[in-house]
Amino acid sequence: MPFNIIRNDIVCMQTDAIVNAANPELKMGGGVCGRIFAVAGEQELTQACNAIGRCEPGTAVITPGFNLPAKYVIHTVGPVWQGGTQGEEQILRGAYRSSLELARQYDLESIAFPLISSGVYGYPYEEAFAVALDEINRYLFQHDMDVTLVMFNTTAYSLGFKLRSDIKSYIDDHYVARHLDRRRRPDYNQPWAPSPKMSCKEQETINTLQSLYEPGSQGKLGFPKEKTFSEALLSLIDAKGMTDAETYKRSNIDRRLFSKIRTNPAYAPSKSTVLALSIGLRLTVQDAQDLLARAGFAFSPCDTRDLIVRYFLERGDHDIVKVNAALYDFDQSLLGL
Known about the structure:
Blueprint (H helix, E strand, L loop, with lengths): L2 E5 L9 E5 L9 H10 L1 H11 L7 E5 L7 E5 L11 H18 L4 E4 L11 H16 L5 E6 L9 H14 L25 H13 L16 H11 L4 H7 L4 H9 L7 H10 L4 H10 L9 H11 L5 H10 L8
Parallel strand pairs: 1-6, 2-4, 2-5, 5-6
Antiparallel strand pairs: 3-4
Helix pairs in contact: 1-2, 3-4, 5-12, 8-10, 10-11
């Protein structure tokens, strides 16, 4: 853990390994494959691949990275799209799974994938993306590894049309344009403070959170208000019967970061961490508001990321991978990490 999605050129990734969407003969091809050969050193990588000989669809092999920033290249062969009736999905899942297992065999801690088979092999983009998210997420629930999905195309939408349309409608319905003096605009990634020039809905949000801090009040989570964020979080995990590992994996949070939260009662988290934990702990919007308030934050009706997280919380959909896919699709920073 964690799992990240970025737009970049995979040959620039400084991970232990990058994955090459290879052909069965392990020859230099076009697209991602051609870029990797060119930057690694065509002659060196070709000789290494020739020594291996072949890689069957759904399997993976490994070579040095040569001139790449990555130490290794894991070559995997995805399926050629033939309409979806020739076992393409299982082959594609096998390509991701085999690559991850090979990385683990070599004790690698980080790996970067392209979106396998979505280029010249013709696998439909949205379906290829869904398989990548699901298979990587399944693996990370069993093993710790930093995994990055590197998207080169900046125009294609990653979500299904209906989900993207629903989220966009929700944002349009709930987004409150700021009518603030630019010199006094609050930063919602910092502890909140009301402003006399806030819109009505912003002021309502702040007033709701202020009520949580009235002397003697109890938050929605049912914990005494004098508890720190860390203390309240750990009590909440116990109350839900969740383990530490389940919590940080479902929240896409690094194990080392979670360890800091557990061992330091005064730990001050980032807003991204609190939002990630709200998803991972399967909180309601009201409970998420309380958890945010304990860390000095609030949901903002002027922040697209906040609204997307609220969209999923309101619907009881606590899949952190799906949430991050939506955030990626709307050019927002991802949760956890």
